[in-house]
Design brief:
Elements (H helix, E strand, L loop, with lengths): L5 E5 L8 H9 L3 E5 L15 E4 L15 H14 L3 E4 L1 H9 L3 E4 L5 E6 L20 E6 L1 E5 L5 E5 L5 E7 L2 E4 L7 H10 L1 H7 L3 H10 L1 H23 L1
Parallel strand pairs: 1-2, 1-3, 3-4, 4-11
Antiparallel strand pairs: 5-8, 6-7, 9-10, 10-11
Length: 241
Protein backbone atom coordinates (compact mmCIF):
# COMPACT_ATOMS: atom_id res chain seq x y z
CA UNK A 1 0.00 0.00 0.00
CA UNK A 2 1.33 3.41 -0.98
CA UNK A 3 2.24 5.60 2.01
CA UNK A 4 -0.18 8.41 2.75
CA UNK A 5 0.92 12.02 2.25
CA UNK A 6 1.25 13.88 5.56
CA UNK A 7 -0.66 17.14 6.03
CA UNK A 8 0.53 19.25 8.95
CA UNK A 9 -2.56 20.95 10.42
CA UNK A 10 -2.11 24.01 12.66
CA UNK A 11 -5.09 24.37 15.00
CA UNK A 12 -5.19 27.71 16.85
CA UNK A 13 -8.12 27.05 19.21
CA UNK A 14 -10.11 24.05 20.42
CA UNK A 15 -13.26 25.68 19.00
CA UNK A 16 -11.69 25.80 15.51
CA UNK A 17 -10.89 22.17 14.62
CA UNK A 18 -10.34 20.78 11.11
CA UNK A 19 -13.85 19.29 11.41
CA UNK A 20 -15.31 18.23 8.04
CA UNK A 21 -12.24 19.34 6.09
CA UNK A 22 -10.10 16.98 8.13
CA UNK A 23 -12.50 14.12 7.44
CA UNK A 24 -12.48 14.87 3.73
CA UNK A 25 -8.68 14.98 3.64
CA UNK A 26 -8.51 11.62 5.39
CA UNK A 27 -11.12 10.20 3.02
CA UNK A 28 -8.94 11.40 0.13
CA UNK A 29 -5.95 9.46 1.45
CA UNK A 30 -4.06 12.02 3.54
CA UNK A 31 -2.64 11.49 7.02
CA UNK A 32 -3.23 14.43 9.37
CA UNK A 33 -0.55 15.55 11.83
CA UNK A 34 -2.37 18.05 14.04
CA UNK A 35 -0.37 20.67 15.92
CA UNK A 36 -2.20 22.41 18.78
CA UNK A 37 0.05 25.26 19.96
CA UNK A 38 -2.81 26.63 22.08
CA UNK A 39 -2.42 23.46 24.16
CA UNK A 40 1.38 23.68 24.37
CA UNK A 41 2.50 21.92 21.18
CA UNK A 42 5.62 23.25 19.50
CA UNK A 43 5.12 24.25 15.89
CA UNK A 44 7.17 21.52 14.17
CA UNK A 45 9.48 21.84 11.23
CA UNK A 46 8.42 20.56 7.82
CA UNK A 47 10.46 17.34 7.84
CA UNK A 48 8.26 14.57 6.50
CA UNK A 49 5.42 17.00 5.75
CA UNK A 50 3.86 17.08 2.28
CA UNK A 51 1.32 19.90 2.77
CA UNK A 52 0.45 22.55 5.35
CA UNK A 53 -3.10 23.42 6.43
CA UNK A 54 -3.48 26.50 8.69
CA UNK A 55 -6.90 26.80 10.34
CA UNK A 56 -8.94 29.70 11.69
CA UNK A 57 -9.14 31.32 15.11
CA UNK A 58 -10.48 34.35 16.93
CA UNK A 59 -7.10 36.09 17.16
CA UNK A 60 -5.72 38.35 14.45
CA UNK A 61 -2.89 37.60 12.05
CA UNK A 62 -0.81 40.34 13.69
CA UNK A 63 -1.37 39.22 17.30
CA UNK A 64 2.10 37.72 17.73
CA UNK A 65 2.55 39.43 21.11
CA UNK A 66 -0.43 37.64 22.66
CA UNK A 67 -0.31 34.40 20.64
CA UNK A 68 3.35 33.44 20.83
CA UNK A 69 3.18 30.71 18.18
CA UNK A 70 2.00 32.94 15.31
CA UNK A 71 5.57 33.97 14.48
CA UNK A 72 6.61 30.33 14.16
CA UNK A 73 3.58 29.60 11.95
CA UNK A 74 4.55 32.48 9.66
CA UNK A 75 8.10 31.09 9.53
CA UNK A 76 6.74 27.69 8.46
CA UNK A 77 4.60 29.34 5.82
CA UNK A 78 7.62 31.08 4.34
CA UNK A 79 9.66 27.87 4.53
CA UNK A 80 6.87 25.92 2.80
CA UNK A 81 6.65 28.49 0.00
CA UNK A 82 10.41 28.35 -0.50
CA UNK A 83 10.35 24.55 -0.62
CA UNK A 84 7.24 24.23 -2.80
CA UNK A 85 5.20 22.50 -0.07
CA UNK A 86 1.48 23.12 -0.79
CA UNK A 87 -0.25 25.44 1.70
CA UNK A 88 -3.91 26.14 2.34
CA UNK A 89 -4.98 28.76 4.87
CA UNK A 90 -8.57 28.97 6.14
CA UNK A 91 -9.86 32.33 7.49
CA UNK A 92 -7.15 33.30 10.03
CA UNK A 93 -4.87 30.90 8.15
CA UNK A 94 -5.62 32.78 4.93
CA UNK A 95 -4.71 36.03 6.67
CA UNK A 96 -1.53 34.54 8.16
CA UNK A 97 -0.31 33.41 4.74
CA UNK A 98 -0.95 36.90 3.39
CA UNK A 99 0.91 38.63 6.24
CA UNK A 100 3.79 36.13 6.25
CA UNK A 101 4.44 36.87 2.59
CA UNK A 102 4.22 40.65 2.84
CA UNK A 103 0.51 41.38 2.53
CA UNK A 104 -1.85 42.99 5.02
CA UNK A 105 -4.77 41.83 7.17
CA UNK A 106 -6.95 44.14 9.23
CA UNK A 107 -10.53 44.58 10.46
CA UNK A 108 -13.01 44.86 7.62
CA UNK A 109 -14.31 48.47 7.59
CA UNK A 110 -17.95 47.44 6.97
CA UNK A 111 -17.76 45.06 9.94
CA UNK A 112 -18.05 41.33 10.60
CA UNK A 113 -19.11 38.96 7.84
CA UNK A 114 -21.49 36.27 9.10
CA UNK A 115 -23.47 33.69 7.13
CA UNK A 116 -23.60 32.20 3.66
CA UNK A 117 -21.90 34.21 0.92
CA UNK A 118 -21.79 33.71 -2.84
CA UNK A 119 -18.22 33.12 -4.03
CA UNK A 120 -17.28 35.74 -6.60
CA UNK A 121 -14.72 33.89 -8.70
CA UNK A 122 -12.33 35.91 -10.84
CA UNK A 123 -11.12 34.90 -14.29
CA UNK A 124 -7.79 33.82 -12.76
CA UNK A 125 -9.55 31.04 -10.84
CA UNK A 126 -10.48 29.17 -14.02
CA UNK A 127 -6.84 28.18 -14.66
CA UNK A 128 -5.75 27.74 -11.04
CA UNK A 129 -4.22 24.40 -10.10
CA UNK A 130 -6.23 24.07 -6.89
CA UNK A 131 -9.38 26.09 -7.51
CA UNK A 132 -10.19 25.63 -11.20
CA UNK A 133 -12.62 22.74 -10.61
CA UNK A 134 -14.45 24.80 -7.98
CA UNK A 135 -14.73 28.03 -9.96
CA UNK A 136 -18.45 27.71 -10.61
CA UNK A 137 -21.35 29.29 -8.69
CA UNK A 138 -21.35 28.11 -5.07
CA UNK A 139 -21.76 29.47 -1.56
CA UNK A 140 -19.52 29.33 1.47
CA UNK A 141 -19.76 30.09 5.17
CA UNK A 142 -18.00 33.25 6.33
CA UNK A 143 -17.63 34.15 10.00
CA UNK A 144 -14.87 36.73 10.22
CA UNK A 145 -14.04 40.24 11.37
CA UNK A 146 -10.65 40.64 9.67
CA UNK A 147 -9.97 40.35 5.95
CA UNK A 148 -6.92 40.48 3.71
CA UNK A 149 -6.80 44.09 2.57
CA UNK A 150 -3.55 43.93 0.61
CA UNK A 151 -2.23 40.90 -1.26
CA UNK A 152 1.51 40.18 -1.28
CA UNK A 153 3.48 40.99 -4.39
CA UNK A 154 2.85 38.38 -7.06
CA UNK A 155 -0.36 37.04 -5.50
CA UNK A 156 -3.58 36.62 -7.47
CA UNK A 157 -7.12 37.29 -6.28
CA UNK A 158 -9.22 34.24 -7.17
CA UNK A 159 -12.52 35.34 -5.64
CA UNK A 160 -14.06 38.42 -4.02
CA UNK A 161 -17.37 39.45 -2.47
CA UNK A 162 -19.71 41.82 -4.29
CA UNK A 163 -18.17 44.60 -2.16
CA UNK A 164 -14.66 43.67 -3.24
CA UNK A 165 -13.35 41.92 -0.10
CA UNK A 166 -10.96 39.10 -0.92
CA UNK A 167 -12.43 35.60 -0.49
CA UNK A 168 -9.84 33.36 -2.15
CA UNK A 169 -6.24 34.03 -3.16
CA UNK A 170 -3.23 32.27 -4.62
CA UNK A 171 -0.32 33.73 -2.68
CA UNK A 172 2.48 31.79 -4.36
CA UNK A 173 2.83 28.95 -6.83
CA UNK A 174 1.58 26.38 -4.29
CA UNK A 175 0.09 28.58 -1.53
CA UNK A 176 -3.59 29.42 -1.27
CA UNK A 177 -6.00 30.92 1.22
CA UNK A 178 -9.77 31.03 1.60
CA UNK A 179 -11.54 33.57 3.80
CA UNK A 180 -14.55 31.26 4.03
CA UNK A 181 -14.90 28.24 6.32
CA UNK A 182 -15.35 25.05 4.26
CA UNK A 183 -14.86 22.92 7.39
CA UNK A 184 -17.73 24.06 9.60
CA UNK A 185 -21.29 23.06 10.36
CA UNK A 186 -23.86 24.23 12.89
CA UNK A 187 -22.24 22.20 15.68
CA UNK A 188 -18.92 24.02 15.25
CA UNK A 189 -20.56 27.41 14.82
CA UNK A 190 -22.72 27.26 17.97
CA UNK A 191 -19.76 28.14 20.21
CA UNK A 192 -18.68 30.95 17.87
CA UNK A 193 -22.21 32.33 17.96
CA UNK A 194 -22.21 32.22 21.76
CA UNK A 195 -19.06 34.32 21.86
CA UNK A 196 -20.60 36.86 19.48
CA UNK A 197 -24.10 36.86 21.01
CA UNK A 198 -24.04 40.35 22.59
CA UNK A 199 -22.44 41.94 19.54
CA UNK A 200 -24.95 40.29 17.21
CA UNK A 201 -27.89 41.33 19.38
CA UNK A 202 -26.66 44.91 19.19
CA UNK A 203 -26.31 44.69 15.40
CA UNK A 204 -29.65 42.95 14.90
CA UNK A 205 -28.15 39.70 13.56
CA UNK A 206 -30.55 36.79 14.08
CA UNK A 207 -28.10 34.05 15.02
CA UNK A 208 -30.67 31.26 14.99
CA UNK A 209 -31.77 32.18 11.49
CA UNK A 210 -28.14 32.24 10.30
CA UNK A 211 -27.38 28.88 11.92
CA UNK A 212 -30.59 27.35 10.56
CA UNK A 213 -29.74 28.50 7.03
CA UNK A 214 -26.24 27.02 7.28
CA UNK A 215 -27.61 23.78 8.72
CA UNK A 216 -30.15 23.49 5.90
CA UNK A 217 -27.32 23.94 3.37
CA UNK A 218 -25.11 21.16 4.80
CA UNK A 219 -25.42 18.85 1.77
CA UNK A 220 -24.90 21.77 -0.61
CA UNK A 221 -21.79 22.88 1.28
CA UNK A 222 -20.28 19.41 1.36
CA UNK A 223 -20.80 19.05 -2.37
CA UNK A 224 -19.25 22.48 -2.88
CA UNK A 225 -16.15 22.11 -0.67
CA UNK A 226 -15.25 18.44 -0.35
CA UNK A 227 -13.59 18.73 -3.80
CA UNK A 228 -11.23 21.36 -2.37
CA UNK A 229 -10.01 18.92 0.27
CA UNK A 230 -9.74 16.13 -2.29
CA UNK A 231 -7.66 18.25 -4.64
CA UNK A 232 -5.44 19.52 -1.80
CA UNK A 233 -4.81 15.91 -0.77
CA UNK A 234 -3.87 15.14 -4.38
CA UNK A 235 -1.32 17.96 -4.35
CA UNK A 236 0.08 16.61 -1.08
CA UNK A 237 0.32 13.16 -2.65
CA UNK A 238 2.15 14.54 -5.64
CA UNK A 239 4.55 16.28 -3.29
CA UNK A 240 5.18 13.02 -1.40
CA UNK A 241 6.01 11.24 -4.64
Amino acid sequence: MEPRPVVLVVEHESACPPAHFGTWLTDAGAELRICRPWAGDEVPDLAGVHALLVLGGSMGANDDATCHWLGAVKDRIREAVAAGVPILGICLGHQLVAVALGGRSEPNPPGQQVGLFDIGWTTDAADDELMSALATPRRGVQWNTDVVTELPEGAAALAATVDGENQVARFAEAAWGVQLHPEVDREVLVSWAAGDRDDHLEKGIDQEAVLDEIDAARAELEQAWRPLATRFAELAGRRRR
